[in-house]
Amino acid sequence: MGGRGPADPIPLRDLYELLKDEFGEVEMWSAESAMEYACGAVLVQNTAWGNVQRTLEDLRRATSFDPARLLALDEAELIALIRPCGFMTSKARALRAYASWALDPAGAAAPGLDDAALREALLALPGFGPETADVVALMAYDRPRFIFDAYGRRLLRQAGYEVGRRYEDARCAHEAAAHAGGFDAAELKDFHGLIILAGQRARAAGGWELYGPTIGISVVMTA
Known about the structure:
Helix content: 55-70%
Strand content: under 5%
Strand order of the largest sheet: 1-2
Distance between the termini: 9 Å
CATH class of the largest domain: Mainly Alpha
CATH superfamily of the largest domain: Hypothetical protein, domain 2
Protein name: Base excision DNA repair protein, HhH-GPD family
CATH architecture of the largest domain: Orthogonal Bundle
GO molecular function: 4 iron, 4 sulfur cluster binding; catalytic activity; metal ion binding
GO biological process, one term: base-excision repair
Pfam families: HhH-GPD
Oligomer: single chain
Mean pLDDT: 93
């Protein structure tokens, strides 16, 4: 008698269409500049989005998300502004690093870099790990990046993918599947928002194992 194993994973394009059918249009956070997107991506690390929204409004009033004005703040001022998001010292350092880079010729040339070179440049900045770099590349520079964050990994696991606990493990294993979906940057931004909304619904329902089958996301076991 043959053993039982998972069926083939659900293709990412099919997952996108399932979520789109379920939720329709999702209202996404829309920033007005690359600096604002970078601030959001850094500040959201290990904190709730509500804290980030309040902090972004404070930063807007103080700097208008002008990199030069952010750099003109002294360290104590910047730390006080971002205190609600926690890890203030490291996040302040990351925001200053991005602002300096944005004003430097290297940062000014970022829109002309290919996707791999842009990711490498962002990863070189203090406080920019793989997830933050990919979010900024997608949201601020319109690069087609699937975001393998905790929400994304939980969805992929429910859809039949072998997913590790680390962002880079999932990205290295499944980035080819994301490319195979033929997504453009606008679709991947939408997909990211849909995944977050679906993940919130799944958590409220008791987890993806319970919620997934109700919206057609479950892998049938085959003999």
